[in-house]
Amino acid sequence: MPDLISVIVTTWNREDALDAVLRSLAAQTDRDFEVIVADDGSGEATARLVAGWVPRFGVPLKHVWQEH
Fold this sequence. Notes:
- By secondary structure, the protein is of the alpha/beta class.
- Helices cover 32% and strands 28% of the residues.
- It is built from 2 helices and 3 strands, in the order E-H-E-H-E.
- A 3-stranded parallel sheet has the order 1-2-3, covered by helices on one side.
- Helix 1 (15-26) packs parallel to helix 2 (44-53).
- The radius of gyration is 12 Å and the shape is globular.
- The chain starts with a strand and ends with a strand.
């Protein structure tokens, strides 16, 4: 089994930029990776955005939220 790569994406209240990054990562042909969104206290819109991507992302996608 190949090694799994973890891609960590940092964000704070930039749903537009986060959506663009997730769209690009979802289009990758190499599927041996996971994505962890490290969220520095964004509002509910960011959580909804990530939750909307989870079922259609194709690789593990996790949202880790920390109070700002």
